Amino acid sequence: MANMNMPNMKDSRWLQLEVCREAQRSKCTRNDEECKFAHPPPHVEIQNGRVTACYDAIKGRCSRENPPCKYYHPPQHLKDQLLVNGRNHLAMKVGSGIPCAVWFMICFNGSA
Asked: What is the reported pTM?
């Protein structure tokens, strides 16, 4: 397929979740299943108050254990939110004039 001046990398912006500020201070009264923000474990990197969710975990097939997965494994209600974000992100890219199949390959395979 022709190079459309796109970087040869996955677009993972739709996999970003805001981290619970209260959880970061160990003050959140909600558990992972109730809070609308991410409660990542200590081994998951937080950048600018956000974490990147594990795409494989969203699909139910992450097997990284030793060492543990560096991405956030969200609870079901946040997985649902991420899937909506992904569909909206893809729809927005389709509206940009670039064929859906190309954006699908960029978002999910890393190249066009």
From this structure: 0.70
